Fold this sequence. Notes:
Elements: E1 11-13, H1 16-20, H2 24-27, E2 37-42, H3 48-67, E3 72-77, E4 82-86, E5 93-96, E6 100-102, E7 111-113
Amino acid sequence: xxxxxxxxxxxxxxxxxxxxxxxxxxxxxxxxxxxxxxxxxxxxxxxxxxxxxxxxxxxxxxxxxxxxxxxxxxxxxxxxxxxxxxxxxxxxxxxxxxxxxxxxxxxxxxxxxxxxxx
Length: 118
């Protein structure tokens, strides 16, 4: 990413024109580009203190993506059935146990049904 960090989200998307602007060598490994859209899944972990610590780490990671140019980020917390939606314009929006999440306006028409994720 622009800050020099190497990250690997659970899922990501980069606009084709941004991807095509990279050299073949840059595309061949960890590309020096921040995705436009990222998804991180909070996996199940043992111990209350570890769960809190891991959530905080993931929230910081999501903010790092936004700070480096991502326009949309979803942190899906399966343990608590919450989704944190990150955008550059402010604090994360928190959804409690949503049936689906949509990518509007950044990704018009993209919908993620949460049934299988929960």
